[in-house]
Structure prediction request, 226 residues.
Amino acid sequence: MKLLLEILIRPRSAAEMIKQRPQWVWQFVILALVSVSLAILLHPHVVNMTLDRLPASATVQDRMEVGRMMNQDLATKSAFLPMRMLIGWSAFALMLLFACKTWRTFEPVRWYQVFSLEIAAETTLVLGQVAALVYASLNQALAFVRIPFGVDQIMPPSADTLVLMALNSVNVFSLWYIVMLAIGVRTLYGISMMKSLITVVAVWSISQIVNVSILWFLRDAFHFQL
Prediction:
């Protein structure tokens, strides 16, 4: 818990702690429990948003069946969410590790150090999900789970939902996350802040492109009105 708070307030100090003594188990457990709780609380909003995105040809029975299936899958999805988080964060840390190898550095950085940094930095994105829950509770007309203070706010509501979702990924919480990761990478590798920012932004951008591509495929496959 101390490391999660430390990285929010003093990211450089937190990165120094990780460099000397990498730790991630309890940090991951805390973030996983919070994320599962948020997913359960967000579930009713996600169901309503999904039903609103069904094709116009969907009957009342179809809508009821979709809602029933989503409610039945909640327990399974909640149980597997920590595993998805672990795999996703591990993959991101691995990508970041290899990306940082493009810079000349004599620091013997290991994967588990970058992984510990990634987990600690994810604290800001979990806070973003808390903000999304509050926003969804106050606004019942959302087309997707929207994190407040995103770039999508510059677009008209009639814009393509996938475009809005992609733009929403650029928000105050993700920018905070990127800056914290960049400070951490700079501390671990001893490189300049500019090189660190370029590396983190590049890896983060690739991950977002993959996420949007998956959503694009699902929309075409299941004919959601996104």
Notes: Residues 60-100 form the longest helix (41 residues).
